[in-house]
Each structure stands twice: as C-alpha cells, then as structure tokens.
Protein 1
Amino acid sequence: MQTHVTLDQRLKKVVSYIPQGAILADIGSDHAFVPCYCLQQGLVERAVAGEVNVGPMEAAQGQVALVQLEDKIDVRLGSGLTVLTPGEVTAVTIAGMGGTLIATILEEGKAHLSGEERLILQPNVDAVDVRRWLLANGYALLSEAIVKENGKIYEILVAEQGEEMLYSEEEEQRDWELFFGPQLMREKAPAFIEKWQTEKEKRQYILEQMQQGNGSDVLQGKIATIRRLIEKMEEVTN
Ligand SMILES: C[S@@+](CC[C@H](N)C(=O)[O-])C[C@H]1O[C@@H](n2cnc3c(N)ncnc32)[C@H](O)[C@@H]1O
C-alpha cells in the first residue's frame, strides 16, 4: 500500500495516453494503482477500478481507502467491461495481461462501451490479437509504444473508434503490420529490435529441432512457415 502512489515506467507510459480530465475505467486494476495515481496527479476526474478476482479487488479497496479517494474511485467486482454502463467513462486502460485475454475482454464486453472511449491497452504478449480485434471492430490505432523495463519488453496500443490510417491496403503487408505493429515496425525503436531479435533466435532454435524430424508434409509445411517468420523478423530488425 502506498500513500503517495508511484508507477513503474510501463504504467507511466500507459497513463501518458489518458486524456486530461478523463473519466477512467482501469480493468484488471489490482491495487488500483493506476486510478489512484491518476487522481493524485489531477489527471482524471473520477475512475472505476474493475477486478474479476476478490483478492485484487480487496487490495484495490484497501489502497483507495488509504489514499482517501473513495468518493472519486469506484471499485467494482466483475469481469472485464461488464462492470461499466455504456457512456459512463471516457477512457479505458487494460494493462498487464496477455493480448488474447485483452481481446476476449473487449469482445465479451463491447456492449458496455459507447464507442466514444479511448482505449489504452498494454498486452504483455500476443499484441497481434488486440490489433486484430481493434481493426475488426472499427477502431483506429492512434499510437503504439514499446518500453523495456526490468528485462521485459511491453507494447502499448492506443485506439479510438474511427477510420484506420496506419495499416497498409495490401493484405499480406497488413498481416505483418498486425503482427509487428504498423507504427512500431516503421519506427524500429531499440526495444522493438531487441524483442524481435530474441523472438527470431527462439524460432531458429525451434527450426533446428524440427529439421531433425521425420520430413512429413505437415512438418515441412510448419518448417516453411517458421522460415518465413524468421526471414520477416530478420527484415524488420535490420
Ligand atoms: C497481472 S495483473 C495486472 C495489474 C495491473 N493492471 C498492471 O498492469 O500492473 C492482472 C489483473 O487482471 C485481473 N483480471 C484478469 N482477468 C480479468 C477480467 N476478465 N476482468 C477483470 N480483471 C481481470 C487479475 O485479477 C489481475 O489482478
């Protein structure tokens, strides 16, 4: 518990995309650090802290009570966006989970959004699933960021309903952009290069193991897919 709440670099970056004066929902709000920090910094007017698990929800309630923000932060128990009524918040943060789970939370809870909210999403892995959901549901990526902290690399995606401008029209290129991030693969920040060089090395190891296999058609197909992925990883990190 902290009376003056501080955030790590990852969450500071997430918070940097919340518009000043927003009404925030932080979903998966273990300890409610993000809402408490935002209120203490005067960044948001009010907030909802949503948690599906009782332990983290109680930790959030304890933290909110400690900083005496019970009148500004509403801690709610429930899954994903289902704790919200459409239109009651203007920004949503979902951070520190896998991209597949974030995409599921968005899909299962989309009826609880008005479509006016800014979404700030920080998948730990599988950001491709989040980008696919955003594209399929009429959200434009406004910005992408990548940060390295304590040896781990995190991607942050910021989106609002609107016409998508960052992706290529061409299907194969768009598939790669969904995978690597359209802005991230253009910017090639050091953390981006490091992430995909590490991923490439993992795939090269898998490829070596597979090449010792039985040579069946199925295996050959998988080998070809991994080779293509490695080539692309080579390309985007050069
Ligand atoms: C690893 S913590 C991340 C906490 C914080 N958002 C962060 O980025 O540091 C993930 C939190 O999400 C919660 N969670 C997982 N699935 C959820 C869901 N469907 N709805 C709400 N919270 C969920 C977990 O209980 C856990 O507290």
Protein 2
Amino acid sequence: MASDVLELAERLWNGEVEIESVHPVSLPVTSRLAEPAHGVAFVPSFANVSAVSTGDGLVLVDTGSAPLAASVKAEIRRWSPERLNTAIYSHGHIDHVFGVGPYEEEARSMNWPAPVVIAHRGVPERFDRYKLTAGYNSVINQRQFQLPGFSWPTEYRYPDRTYDQHLALDVGGVEVELHHALGETDDHTWTWVETHRLVCCGDLFIWASPNAGNPQKVQRYPLEWAAALRQIAIKEPEILLPGHGFPVLGADRVATALLDTAELLESLCEQTLTLMNQGARLDEVLHTVTPPAQLMERPYLRPIYDDPEFIVHTIWRRYGGWYDGNPSTLKPARESAVAAELANLAGGAKVLANRAVALMEAGDLRLAAHLAELAALAAPADMSVHATRAEVFSKRAMEESSTMARGIFAAAAADSKQAMGLTAS
Ligand SMILES: [Zn+2]
C-alpha cells in the first residue's frame, strides 16, 4: 500500500490503479494516517478509523478491530496527544468496535475522564445477538475469509449512550450530528461534522459494490440504504471518510460516489420488485435482474467484496417470504436422497461427476457446480467424486470477483480435499 493514502485514493479514483490490487479485505496492516483537512485524521485499517480534533479532546468515528487496535492508536498518537473524548460506532460489526480499550487504559493512567462510546440503540441488541449466535458467526467467517480456527468474540464494549433517530453533540465547540440509517445493518450511524463539511459514513460506502447481499448474514436494507445516501448528499459534504476503502475528497466526487451507489441499489430493488409483483419465482428474478453496466464500471462500485446478484436475494427476503416459488423445495426430500435418485438414473455418481468436469471444461461453471455437488451428495465416501468437487469449486472460486463467493466456493473445495485426506483439519 502506498505510504500516502490520499495520493493512492486519487489514483484509484482516476483509474490509474485497479481497486482489485488494494482490495479492502486484503489490506494487511494499519497504514499511515492521512490528514484530509486540518483537524481531521483518517487511519486506513480494517476497518478504517476517522478522528476529529475538538477544543476538548478527540472524537473518533469507529475504532477498528481488536488485532489492530494498538497500532491504530499509535498512528492517532503520532498525529495528536489529545485525550479521547467520544467514540462513535458507525455500526456494531466487529471490525469497527474493538478499539476503545487502549484509550480507556490511557485515560486511567493519565487521570483523564473516561471516553464515552455512543452508538445507535440497535448496537447493544446486535451484541446480544452475537453472543446468541457466536458458533454460527465463527463458522461463516471461517468460510468467508478462509480463516480456519477463527473464533467469534463473546465479550463486547457496549456503548455508554445510545440514540434513536438523530443526536446532536457539542464536543469542545465542534458540532457533531449523528443520523441513524438502515443500510448494511439496522444500526448504522452516519456522522456529520459541519465545520469540516465532513461525513463519516461507516459502511454505507466502502469503495466497492455495496455489502447489501452478504449470503450468510442477517437482513440488509437496500432501498433505505439508497435513501440514506441521498440524505447524506443533501448535506453537500466535501470530505467522505468511509468504513472501508479510501477517502473521497471534493464536493463533486463525494456526490458522485454517494448518488451512483444509491442508483445501483435502487435499480436492483426496482427490477427485483417488478418481477416479484408479477409473481415470478426467485429463479427467474435471479437470472433476469442485471446491474446497470455503466455503474459496475465505476472504480468504487466493483464487485470485489459482495456481489450484486446476492443483493437480489436480500431484496427477495426483505419483501417476501423464504419460499422461492418452486413447490418441490417447500417441503423437500433430503438433498442426499434426491442426489442418490439422480445418480441411479444416470448410472452412478461417477457419471454425474464426469459430466461436471465436461461442463466445467466447456465453461459452464454454474451447471458444473450442481452436478459436482449432486455427485458428492450421492456418494460422499467416493474420493474420485470429491476430487471432482474440489476441482470444480476451486475453479469457481478463482473465477469469482467477490470475497464472499470466493470464500464459500473455496471452503467447499477445502471440505472435499479434507474428505480426501489431502489437508489437515
Ligand atoms: Zn465494516
């Protein structure tokens, strides 16, 4: 990563550097702090941390993740010695809420007042849910990020103060406005600092196609998300500091980034709802809805993390039931029983696996994946079938652009390799 984040942001915006080469998820460590305006700091990290200096200490928007908390704080301290007055969580995802501890220790040792953590009222509910589903969250994140052994946290730094719709703060003479939004989560806050015409938007903008479709996570809110982006744009911000990715500087660029993202979400919602309102099956919706090509070309809307196809599922779930319109899936047989029937009809699981290879070689990876999976379900102890399944899903992982699809396909390949005894568990 370039030493100067703002210079890199400029080159990314102009298309001189491919966003894929500095993929937000693969940012390895905390990089150097940037100062997009006097009194405003931005620490690129996973997730990014933004800071505003006031007459009475710092306001942080987001605090980063546990492994990077100390190095993020060290970067902040290179920039300012002021105490932490207030930390705002843009939402309760774990990469944003595990950085308060080092400032609390510092406050105790310096005899400073303890920092106050503020978030939307949905954040404590989220932390409660995370405790309830810690096992599930461990499994899905191991899969998504290819992190074997990753363990979901069960202890959280809850906010000291929550709010519902809006909250106006005066911190050392600097006015800070918090606005609730439904978007990537139900507990999002975008923070507006009029003095700097600065918005810290959390994950409502992440320098990538919106994380609105995430296949393994709870409900997201694409239409409300778009509305929030339009609300932010009304403020005419000059500095946009996002939860992931890079700063966007200049009123025109900020407006473009916000409104293009809104337009993408609105288009997917409109197309999906039109088909739902006509009674289409999910299958038809998935294979008909198309994200606007010109928007997908924008460097800040590339599907490197999430995938617009997944957003169609989110919209289906938001406005419909779980039934996909195919009556055989309403009260289905065991998948393994269906696979065994088809394998029998075809002349064995090997026939299905061989067809999977042929389809893969012909370039139809979607269909190849179905046959490889059926073969493995029909013959779970057949190592040659697992070899095919591993090959097909490895290839699928390689051909996908999003972290999420790559992670899930790679995990399927890894499962089959493990079944074959090729990898340690
Ligand atoms: Zn995030």
Protein 3
Amino acid sequence: MASEQFSFKGFAEQPFYQGVNQRLVDSLTVKPGQRIVDLACGTGLLTRLILERLQGAKDTLVIGIDQSAVSLGLAMRDLKSAPGVMVQFVQTQVEHLSSTVQGSVDAVFLGNGIHLIPDKKQLVAEVFGILRPGGTFAFNSTFFEGGVPPESEQYYRRWMSKALRSLKSTYGLMPQRNKVEARRQLSPQEYRDILEQQGFSVTKQELVPVEFTLEGHLGIARYEDFVAGAMPGVPLEMASQVLQEAARQSYEELKLTFVPRNWLQVVAVRP
Ligand SMILES: C[S@@+](CC[C@H](N)C(=O)[O-])C[C@H]1O[C@@H](n2cnc3c(N)ncnc32)[C@H](O)[C@@H]1O
C-alpha cells in the first residue's frame, strides 16, 4: 500500500537531484501563453522548477500527470503557484496522454520516469501527437545503459549483496526474483532511434555526471517503488531497513563521500 512514509519526497529534496533536474527544465524557452505537461510528475519537483522558470510569463498552463495518488497529493500540498500560471494535476497513466490532454502543447517534460514505461515507442508517439510543431520533449533518466560508470560498480555490488545477506540473516527472507519485471535499460542511441523514427529531431543529448551522496542512497532506499523493485515480495519496512543499513556500511567500508553516476538528458523537437 502506497504511503507518504515511503514517498519519493525525501529523495527528490536532495540537492544533487534538484541540480540535475534544474538542468533539464533550463531547456525550456519561457513565453507567455504556453501549455506545458510534466509527465510522471511524482511529488512535483519538476513541476515546481517549471513554475519557477515561468515567473513573469502570463496565461500559462502546467499539467502534471502521474499514476500515484499519494505523490500527486504531496505535489498539490507543497506547490505554490506563480501569478498568471494555472496548474492542474491528473491521476492517470502516461500511456493515456492523448486522451488526457485536450489540444496541443508547447513542451512535455518527463523527469526520471521514461525507464519505467514498458512501451517507449508508444509513449513517444503519444508525446509527438500532443506537441505543436516546434514543440519540445525533454526527458532525463539515470537508468540507461551507461548510468553506472565502471568506478561505481563496486559500490552497487557491495550495497546489494550486503542488503541481501542482512535480509536473510535478520529476517530469514529472500526476495522473490521471479516477480521482477525484466526491464532492459536502453542506450542513448536507442532512445535517439525511437525519437527519430517517430519524427522528432534530437537537438540535445548529453551525459551529465552527478555525485550521488549517502543521503541520496538513504532517500532512494525509503522510496516504495525502488525498494519493491530491488527486493520484490519483501515487506517494505524490512527491505527499506536493510537497504539503508547496507548503504551506510558500504559508504563507510569503501570510504566514500559520493558515488559517481551519470544522467542522460535528451531534448527533442517536433519539426
Ligand atoms: C522516479 S519518480 C519521478 C518523479 C518526478 N518526475 C521527478 O523527477 O522527481 C517516477 C514517477 O513515475 C510515475 N509512473 C511510473 N509509471 C507510470 C505510468 N505508467 N503512468 C504514470 N506515472 C507513472 C511514478 O508514479 C513516479 O511518481
């Protein structure tokens, strides 16, 4: 059961995470009268950054879409609107984009969620369909082929094997591996190919190096979707607790102050 205790909020507040998402939102050209969609908006980090960027732009509309009622509730509670900007939140799946948004829009953002969408071709077609000619689609993700640089692999191996050992020794449990949905991570070229096949012109594709902190790993280990994906079938409290403790120990043993990670950032334009 989704709850605020295991929401994305704690992770979304991490400065390194705000920085990498600010970079994505900075690709937005601000003009009055724009209509902007924040897809998979979660607890509303990008929505807030978009609103801040729209300061001074009149008659704009921002639509946040997410499947999680808990996340949308937190986004609505914390967001302060800017004058002249209207914000709407819709609880639905991003796959239903064209039937959710009426009329064309100027920009679609999808922060840290594209890797979660099984049919990326269909999603990109939906985004293309609602954008006006000249409109932009900007997304980012660290779950792509290349997200974990070789120097960080040791940390991730240690973190997961420690967490699994502790789950077994403390609670006598093992995750149900057969429940994990096989999600292959795409390469930057594969994302580019999908966009271009749909008719988009890719104007920016970059790898952004990020210093992931212990607070970040503790935050992600308190996020329901991550915990359930890392340890399927294990009660959330137990899985989260062993993941947090294993992260602390791994940082200490490897004497780390941060773990390098790459974010993929892509901006594409509908010609
Ligand atoms: C990692 S969070 C990112 C939230 C926000 N965009 C950010 O960058 O802080 C991923 C979000 O995708 C949402 N999500 C995943 N699959 C979805 C789908 N098919 N339709 C709508 N939302 C989805 C989840 O509910 C979650 O809020």
